[in-house]
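Q: Focus on the chain.
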Amino acid sequence: MSVRFNRDGATTKNFQTMLPMLAPDSYTVHWKAMGEDGHMMKGSYGFMQH
């Protein structure tokens, strides 16, 4: 599942979206963000849904 947001919107420190109920499994979130200095940052983290 990919979540999109309006890149032309106002700058915020937080981004929140609602996800459907996840089935029990292991998941990985991949994220990208632009820092105040214009440099791109990215990372990922995993979690398990029980």
Observations:
- The mean pLDDT is 84.
- The two ends are 19 Å apart (CA to CA).
